[in-house]
Amino acid sequence: MKNLAKILLVICFLVIDYGLFSQPYRTEFIEFYDYTTILNDLVKTGKKSKFYEQLNYEAMLFLDKSSLKVLKRVNPHFLDQNNIDTTNYFSVVPKNHVNVLHVSFTNIKQLFSTNDNWKSIILQLKRVNLDSKMDMMIDKEIYTKDNQKAIITIRQTSWSITYRVILRNKKLRFEELYEIQE
Predict the structure, then answer these.
(1) Could you give the maximum distance between any two Cα atoms of the chain, in Å?
(2) For position 99, what pLDDT does the model report?
(3) CA dist 108 to 41, 117, 142, 173, Å?
(4) DSSP H or E stretch at residue 113
């Protein structure tokens, strides 16, 4: 009887553990950060901005390199602190790192409306490392600009890739910015 109680306790713990710590995809799980809102807040409040501490400088620069001036004014040392080489942000993405897909939506946030939606679109890129829908995850923080651009990072167990995604005339342009083997 004691063994049965122990087994039930372990099963109960595993169910609770899975429920508490697993992160199923939910649209409310994604946090959208609007470029214009962030920039305006940084201009207005500087280091007191609610975005200052956790700001993804890289995403801001990839969305629009003109943010460099404001970012330097608010935090003159951010390039060194984040080990950022600006030549990466000012160069054009080579054609062999660009894919264009036809879609039916008009707002970049619609790409993330469901788990299956963004995964099926990503699989259309036909990337070798993005061939498994099961273990593909997207970072919850997505920086957007004008509902037409987004910076996203897709992760798998030991690998990640970051894209700038641009929506124009019902076409999604995926520009591969960099990938990391972890």
Answers:
(1) 70
(2) 92
(3) 22, 12, 11, 11
(4) none
CB 122 within 8 A of CB 115: no
Tell me the two tokens of residue 166: 């641009």
Identify the pLDDT of residue 1: 58
Alpha-carbon torsion (90, 96, 102, 108), positive or negative: negative
Using CA atoms, how far apart are residues 69 and 1, in angstroms rounded to an integer?
70
Mean pLDDT lowest for which of 2-11, 145-154, 162-171?
Answer: 2-11
Measured CA distances, 30 to 8, 87, 125, 146 (Å):
35, 29, 22, 17
Tens of pLDDT, residues 1-34: 555 554 554 454 444 444 434 344 444 578 999 9
Structure-token match 């008009």, residue found: 106
SS3 label, residue 150: strand
pLDDT value at position 117?
A: 83
Q: Which residue has the higher pLDDT, 119 or 38?
A: 38
CA triplet 150, 132, 105: central angle to 5 degrees? 35
Helix or strand holding residue 116 (H, E): helix 115-123
